[in-house]
Design goal:
Helix content: 40-55%
Shape: globular
Radius of gyration: 22 Å
Bound molecules: pyridoxal-5'-phosphate
Strand order of the largest sheet: 4-10-9-8-7-5-6
Structural class: alpha/beta
Strand content: 5-15%
Distance between the termini: 33 Å
Number of strands: 15
Largest sheet: 7 strands, mixed
Number of helices: 16
């Protein structure tokens, strides 16, 4: 590049020239995202502004430490971006402290354990088969290996969190920390009640808000921030930011959280992602985003209700969030097969255990659907009805290749009307 020429970011043509093999995968993935239906509850279409930061030269900068206290020189510019991001996070969520450096949701959770517990301590968290995340005590995960994680779950009659059981377990086990938040729980969590239980047993209140923080940012559901000691989350689900994590906390925990991230378990932050987080926090502070968050829930409620009309059952009777868990046993098809059939029909969703599932997690009796991405595309009530019909046909139509092709072509006709990129409708 000639000296003095303006250069701000990546040049896709350069990638195509230099490495056509990888460039073609990037293009095919963009086409897949554009043409197929994206109903994975943890995915979204981030804005071009966020993508620009992630492909920027901020990626080159090492910045171990925090603004003003770095272990490397030349951090003046990246200090600015992190400080702007921290302030935006505190303003948007009304938080006393924010750390934008976690590389992912799981990294943020490792830091939370490290800040408040020691290996062997007891932690209370949502049971995995009832919607909890791997970092909430799965035996194959560090959390289940290094901590004594006791699980609470949902009631069998209404499939909502059993707060009586949660309190009984807390009184019995005296956990150091209680985690609320899940990866497949369609209802709201009563943070006030959880706070009371934490106070009763002297436990740290940790909310893993990875899934629903975008709805909180958009003021569509109540916030855990006033109640919790610490709130960890991912930035790439409903929030619609770059792939990464974030932690909010009370000021009294600020030093413990910051130390747990660095030097506790990470080295240098990914400054391009930190910049992307700052950008999305600005987007989230707009009326347009608040409108989006509200619509995500409306769409999900419509989709759950339309799937019920197709003969499937929405766990807990419906949803109050961006995701719905659907018990598909009435179709005679298990979650694994449904996931595969939908995939062949151009519909991306995932198999999911339902509470008290008789099937193993690898097979499961349910599917999980989310409306964050299709709502970003601008879809609404009418499209949810069409999508429910397409899912139903894909699941029930057996393994007929022609039917799958036909459904896929209808999916493409739908998504063509709601294209994403060059810019999703943010
Ligand atoms: N916590 C919850 C509740 C999640 O749902 C997820 C991811 O889906 C994570 C943590 C982990 O996030 P990541 O995949 O960014 O590590």
């Amino acid at each position: 590049m000639p000296r003095g020429e303006k250069y701000y970011g990546p040049d896709f043509n350069a990638l195509e020239r230099q490495d056509p093999e990888i460039a073609s995968v990037v293009i095919s993935e963009l086409e897949r995202q554009r043409h197929d239906l994206q109903l994975i509850a943890s995915e979204n279409f981030t804005s071009s502004a966020v993508l620009a930061t992630m492909g920027s030269t901020l990626s080159n900068k090492y910045a171990e430490g925090y603004p003003g206290k770095r272990y490397y020189g030349g951090c003046e510019e990246v200090d600015k971006v992190e400080l702007i991001g921290i302030q935006r996070a505190k303003d948007l969520f009304g938080a006393e402290h924010a750390n934008l450096q976690p590389h992912s949701g799981a990294s943020a959770n490792v830091a939370v354990y490290q800040a408040f517990t020691k290996p062997g301590d007891t932690v209370l968290a949502m049971s995995l088969p009832h919607g909890g995340h791997l970092t909430h005590g799965a035996k194959v995960n560090f959390s289940g290996k290094w901590f004594n994680v006791v699980s609470y779950g949902v009631r069998q009659d209404n499939e909502l969190i059993d707060y009586d059981q949660l309190r009984d377990l807390a009184l019995e086990h005296k956990p150091k920390m209680i985690c609320s938040g899940a990866t497949a729980y369609p209802s709201l969590i009563d943070f006030e009640k959880v706070r009371q239980i934490c106070d009763e047993v002297g436990a740290i209140m940790w909310v893993d808000a990875a899934h629903f923080i975008g709805l909180v940012a958009g003021k569509a559901i109540p916030s855990p921030v006033p109640y919790a000691d610490v709130v960890s989350f991912t930035t790439h689900k409903v929030l619609r930011g770059p792939r990464g994590g974030m932690i909010l906390s009370k000021e009294k925990h600020a030093a413990a959280i910051d130390k747990a991230i660095f030097p506790g378990m990470q080295g240098g932050p990914i400054m391009s992602a930190v910049a992307g987080k700052a950008v999305v926090l600005k987007e989230c502070a707009t009326a347009a985003y608040q409108n989006y968050a509200k619509k995500v829930i409306e769409n999900c409620q419509a989709l759950a209700s339309d799937l019920q009309k197709e003969g499937m059952r929405a766990v807990s009777g419906g949803t109050q969030t961006h995701l719905a868990l659907i018990d598909i046993r009435s179709t005679g098809v298990n979650g694994k097969v449904a996931d595969e059939r939908c995939g062949k029909s151009g519909i991306s969703l995932n198999k999911n255990s339902i509470p008290f599932d008789p099937e193993s997690p690898a097979v499961s009796s349910g599917i999980r659907v989310g409306t964050a991405a299709v709502t970003t595309q601008g879809m609404g009530r009418e499209e949810m009805k069409v999508i429910a019909g397409l899912i139903s046909r894909a699941i029930k139509n057996g393994d007929d290749e022609n039917q799958a092709k036909e459904i896929r072509s209808e999916v493409h006709q739908l998504t063509k009307r709601f294209s994403v990129y060059p810019e999703p409708s943010i």
